[in-house]
Write a structure and sequence with these properties.
Helices cover 77% and strands 0% of the residues. The chain is an all-alpha fold and 210 residues long. The protein has one domain (4-13, 26-96, 108-206).
Length: 210
Amino acid sequence: MIDLTALAGFALVALGMVLTPGPNMIYLISRSVCQGPVAGLISLGGVTLGFVVYMLCAAFGITALVFAVPYAYDALRFAGAAYLLYLAWQTLRPGGQAPFQVRALPRDGLRRLFLMGLATNLLNPKIAILYLSLLPHFIDPQNGSVLTQSIVLGSVQIAVSVTVNALIAIGAGSIAGFLAERPVWLAVQRWLMGTVLAGLAVRMAVDESR
């Protein structure tokens, strides 16, 4: 079974990732501000289903890769480190996207809200790369089934993401207004997350324990 320390570490990484600006966060905030928290939560249901689809695909894919390709963990480890460095740059670069930037959206019915949330997530390649690059770093074949460990870790990521995004959707209007009046908070958030992502990338690249 997965070591509790590794599980806690992965949960912290998942928390950092969900707080990093991306299409899902911006869509949910915009939907909640334009149509209310309930619409944001329904959209989050679609986003969650997208997470489940990607997580299961990655879990089965990683399991097959580990048994089929020698040194697969090393390849995924370096790919993951490179991807995290890319995310760090996207967060820190001049003119980087603000996480609470609101877009005007039309009012949609419940079914369309759910499907739009699902489409927003499924069309976001960041999610697939996230699973494929991060999961192997926290999986140890000596601790049992690779597939089971992948699913457990993926479920932790989904739980963290749903919890944080639900809180954001409920308080989107207040949060967006607060940050719009205090741009220094946005700058601190960007630099903090960029530094964390870059540090994790370096750690992944130099970790030879697997």
